[in-house]
Write a structure and sequence with these properties.
Length: about 290
């Protein structure tokens, strides 16, 4: 906190305590029937707490209460974040909280007890061309970083991936992968479930020609937004692979060379660009996506 004091909670406890510079500890919040998960103090000295109901955290049920609560001065409840505009839970288990200079809240949201880590891997050496002996896979690691699932071939024995470069998951734990074909970063989107079943592939509209997917993110309704570096555009498809929209952000918004995508909790899309037009430095742009595409 701004005056050097520290907020803390006991593991499994219901209270948040304040440790002063003199070493005094006092309770400042009692969450009663709720369990505090994470604590963060923003630049305005507001306290943000991730909370859930008592009991096992998973699976998340319809009656489960998963919230972020922002407390103002005197630890008075100021804002409760629980549902998106569509009435869906924003969080499963808000485990870590951070804010940026604009007080945008970033949350590590866990969806099961496994805390799965998903890693795209390949053999040592040049990535291309992909040979019959090339090993291209996604590995899902469970608790203790033990290998749980390896995704390498489809049901026909064909390689699922050439070079898995970016990975995202939706609310059903379907994996969406930017899969690159060559050193020029041409590629496609591959969606697979954790059993290795191929859900869809997306190569961009046929009349567009070159497709260089660089960034990918998932909306709250499980639509997929892809940054196309070559065309300076955003593609939007749904979880069935249906094409929903194409926005040429260079023409419409003067945004060049999109590389990284991420949604914040307010629904704004952050677009990280490696450089601007005739500029040698990167930029981050914040835009609002149409509600119909979210």
């Amino acid at each position: 906190m701004k005056d050097g004091e520290i907020l803390l909670k006991e593991l499994g406890g219901n209270t948040i305590q304040l440790l002063s510079l003199s070493g005094e500890v006092k309770t400042v919040l009692d969450t009663f029937q709720m369990r505090p998960l994470a604590i963060h103090v923003n630049k305005d000295n507001e306290v943000i707490v991730g909370m859930r109901e008592q009991g096992p955290p998973f699976p998340v049920q319809d009656f489960s209460v998963r919230q972020l609560i922002i407390f103002g001065s005197g630890y008075q409840r100021k804002v409760t974040l629980e549902f998106d505009k569509g009435g869906n839970k924003l969080f499963s288990n808000a485990n870590r909280i951070r804010t940026d200079s604009r007080n945008v809240v970033y949350v590590i949201d866990r969806f099961d007890n496994a805390n799965h880590v998903i890693v795209g891997m390949r053999e040592q050496g040049p990535p291309f061309p992909v040979q019959d002996f090339s090993v291209r896979q996604l590995i899902i690691f469970g608790s203790g970083y033990q290998r749980k699932v390896t995704l390498k071939f489809d049901k026909g024995g064909n390689k699922l991936f050439s070079n898995a470069n970016r990975i995202r998951t939706d609310s059903r734990n379907v994996l969406y992968v930017i899969d690159r074909f060559d050193n020029a970063n041409h590629g496609r989107i591959v969606a697979v479930d954790i059993n290795g079943c191929l859900n869809l592939t997306y190569d961009g509209p046929k009349d567009l020609g070159t497709f260089q997917p660089e960034g990918i993110t998932i909306t709250p309704s499980d639509n997929i937004v892809v940054a196309d570096f070559y065309n300076k555009a955003l593609h939007v498809i749904n979880s069935k692979g249906d094409f929903l929209g194409l926005l040429f952000i260079f023409k419409d918004l003067d945004i060049n060379y999109p590389s990284i995508l991420c949604f914040d909790t307010e629904g704004y899309l952050s677009i990280g660009c490696c450089r601007g037009e005739n500029e040698g430095f990167g930029k981050i742009h914040f835009v609002k996506i149409l509600d119909s595409l979210m």
